[in-house]
Amino acid sequence: MLTLPPKVTSRAFERLSEIGANADGKALRIAVEGGGCSGFQYEIDLDTPKDDDLVLEGAGEKVIIDSISLPFLTDATIDFTEELIGARFVIENPNASSSCGCGVSFSM
Predict the structure, then answer these.
(1) Where are the domains positioned within the chain?
(2) CA distances (Å), 24 to each of 27, 44, 47, 103, in order?
(3) What pLDDT, in 10s, does the model give residues 37-48?
(4) How many Cβ atoms are within 10 Å of 95's Cβ, its own excluded?
(5) How many CB atoms lie within 10 A of CB 21?
(6) Among 55, 56, 34, which residue's Cα sits nearest to residue 43?
């Protein structure tokens, strides 16, 4: 089975540039942890790249994913959205069988 790495939208890279992530030597880390109301949850934070991270680059910015989280994010899309409830990075994950209303927790 072919596994595709996650995609990052230009809007997400633009937002990282706006907040100056790379200027501080940081990248957007997307990780999957056990927990949340649906079994797994996304951890989204600014962090320094590590040796075993997958690094996705665009517009001079980086999104990093550790090797443990990568299988959970196959063919996912990392985006940035601005809605009435606020602005945030979001993950559209075709591997998730369900997710909760907050968009941070999911099951497979």
Answers:
(1) 7-103
(2) 9, 17, 10, 28
(3) 667 888 999 999
(4) 14
(5) 20
(6) 34
For residue 9, how many other CB atoms are within 10 A of its CB? 17
User: Tens-of-pLDDT digits for all 108 residues of the chain?
Assistant: 557 899 999 999 999 999 988 888 999 999 998 876 667 888 999 999 999 999 999 999 999 999 999 999 999 999 999 988 889 999 998 887 766 655 555 555
Q: Which two tokens stand for residue 96?
A: 């998730």
How many residues in the chain?
A: 108
Specify the 3-state DSSP secondary structure of 100.
coil
Query: How do beta strands 77-83 and 61-65 pair?
Result: unpaired
Q: Which residue carries 């999911």 as its tokens?
A: 106
- State in words which class domain 7-103 has: mainly beta
